[in-house]
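User: Here's a protein and a ligand (aspartic acid). What would the complex look like?
Assistant: Let me lay out the input and then the predicted complex.
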Amino acid sequence: MYRSHHCGQLRSSNINEEVTLSGWVQKSRDKGFVIWVDLRDRYGITQLIFDAERTPEAMMTMAKSLGREFVIQVTGSVIERASKNPNLETGDIEILVSKLTVLNEAKVPPFTIEDQTDGGEELRMKYRYLDIRRNPVKDNLIFRHKVTQEVRSYLSSQEFVEVETPYLIKSTPEGARDFVVPSRMNEGQFYALPQSPQTFKQLLMVGGMDKYFQIVKCFRDEDLRADRQPEFTQIDCEMAFVDQEDILNIFEGLTRHLITSIHGKDITSFPRMTYDEAMETYGNDKPDIRFGMKFGELNAVTQHKDFSVFNAAELVVGIAVPGGNSFTRKEIDGIINWLKRPQIGALGMIYSRCNDDGTYKSSVDKFYDQDDLGKWAEVTGAQSGDLVCVLSGPTDKVRAQLSALRMELAERLGLRNPKEFAPLWVTDFPLLEWDEDSKRYHAMHHPFTAPKPDQISLLDTDPGAVKANAYDLVLNGNEIGGGSIRIHDKATQALMFDHLGFTPEEAKEQFGFLMNAFEYGAPPHGGLAFGLDRLVAILGGQETIRDFIAFPKNNSGRDVMIDAPSPIDTTQLNELHLKVDLK
Ligand code: ASP
């Protein structure tokens, strides 16, 4: 028996018991005649004591030679500590060791295995197994386990069945590139790793499974953006005989369940907003609604004067920054410079200070009088003490810029409280999205999303205006899930492929299996998927998903621990019928 208790378990009620513990040496303090060793395992730390009076000499010598991260087993009696440590759950006791076994020695670790470590990110990733011994990483993994357990329990209670779908499939276009796997037995042919189980879960609905979910890995070969992983996990769900309302209700239930079971908090409101409204009010389809600073469109109250910048703009739009009148001139210049950085690309910013005495002072007083500025304040909802920040230009660009500014200022003003959870459904997404590069429409969500039935006729005349029963779940300014009602008949699916630029042959080649299935009694169905990594991170009050993944890839998509991707040898290449021309 390696242990009778774990290292976080013993209390003063165990005093005088004989126990056996196993774990890692966190650190030892050698005072010559007394040696204290902190023994760590997943559950906590227990202090061991060896002292010259009670410990045999040979064991004293052995205790002195214990290095950091040695794996040891001890047997001894639980005694009361002379000086107690209230910060440690086991801080009232220590173990007077009578038997010490070194189970394995350890090299000196390349960084300190403590809550605050001296190891840089890359180094910690290389030795991730050591990083996992640290509380912050270990606790995140345990937290993730708790979230997935709650997900499984909630969905099971709602009669969802977890079904596994294959990883070696044929490509499913969901906007990204596929990772492909060459087939040894079928020369010149390839599997693709799923970007999501989308078509399979739809086929499960045709198969009558009714309510499906899966906590599943998805693979997307995208250019890596900060905090994206080439493989990530979804909570993937699909339901038959449902409309959008049924789906929103079920997953509102799941979200509430998670926040209550994990944080003991009730979500008081779960608002919904259309995509158009989100873009108008927040310039963004995943608005953080924990704070205000809603957009106020100012065209009507700015374009009647001689200020040509505003007059020429498609959109003039502003936000009221709470308390922003206290910003110094220098701080405002800083904000303007921040906006002008290429990542944001604004040409400048006009502002109006709302003074405590009810007067205004703007950067364009030459053009606008107090009445005008009063209207700006009214439209943006500014109070005295606020600062109205105004941008102008082409609608899409300006909305994106002002939205970035809104988030940045909220961050600086401490308005993004990680302990507060503000979910939001954004609904009625456009079906199609114009792609400038390829000069054609792409499916905004994916090609299986159904247009709103009354808008199908618009597909021919104004495709960009067609809305879908597609929705996103947004939590604290992050998109954590998205889904749609699907097309479930062959004719509409063929029409959709046609609008996406597929010839009937291409559509048949790639999606014949789905269109065939639609001819055998496909029920109306829909679903959604949550990004588990991000959901867990946000529920954990953080935004970096890597910290919640046991073995993440770095920013260049590499696993620096196992060193992947890596070349394979010629025999393997030949077997796969692959020729690699390394220049
Ligand atoms: N398959 C979709 C995605 O990965 C989710 C869905 O429509 O259910 O985003």
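Summary: Residues 174, 196, 198, 482-484, 527-529 surround aspartic acid (CB under 6 Å).
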